[in-house]
Design a protein that fits this description.
- The protein is an alpha+beta fold and 214 residues long.
- It is built from 9 helices and 7 strands; from the N terminus they run E-E-H-H-E-E-E-E-E-H-H-H-H-H-H-H.
- The strands form 2 sheets. The chain has a 5-stranded antiparallel β-sheet with strand order 4-3-2-1-5. A two-stranded antiparallel sheet has the order 6-7.
- Strand 3 and strand 4 form a beta hairpin.
- The longest helix has 38 residues.
- This is DH domain-containing protein.
- It holds the Pfam family SH3_2.
- Keywords: Guanine-nucleotide releasing factor, SH3 domain.
Amino acid sequence: METAFDILVVNQDFKSEATDSVTLQRGDIVEVLKTSTETTESTVKKSGADSNTTAKWLVRVFGDNAKEGWVPRNILEDSSTASMLNGNDKESVDFQKKAVIRELLDTEEEFGRDLQNVVDRYIKAVDAANAPRTVRDSKDIIFGNFQQIAEFHTKVFNDGVQYYKDKPNMVVKTFLRLERDFDMHVKYCKTEPLAQEYLASNKEAFTFFQVKIK
């Protein structure tokens, strides 16, 4: 078995003709789950075929966990070595990829600063000794898992994207590795209406945060 769990790009359209295969389009991004070959080395030498044309890899289309199957190795390549992709030359494509990653990093860093500002300005204020008792006791209702989300973006996700900033085609590994961690945002969205309801019905808490906003 060769290297598994690589992230590769499909370099040509491929139509599946077997039940264990999958139809792909040029430009699709796939995750390699397993590698194999249908022929022995001696058969390849005898026929004169390139091992890349006889090997088949099990792949899963990124973003669609239900879509996976065996495909020829020769239709897959590391996007950083692709000479053509979506009609652009390699230099242009590489530049565009790095620009996208740079924008992602800039946006994530700004988002992280905004999250940390909420933590520093409001959550820490609730922890202070002079905060109203009713507000301190209701911290979990008001903020839910907000602080956990802030720490995730400023310390974990941002570092993961930074790690692959010079290898744009590999940054998807960060998303795959942290896929389940993004569920914390769902949890926050589910509890946020309770926070709004609490602030609307508790005058002391509402006034406390209004003062902090000014």
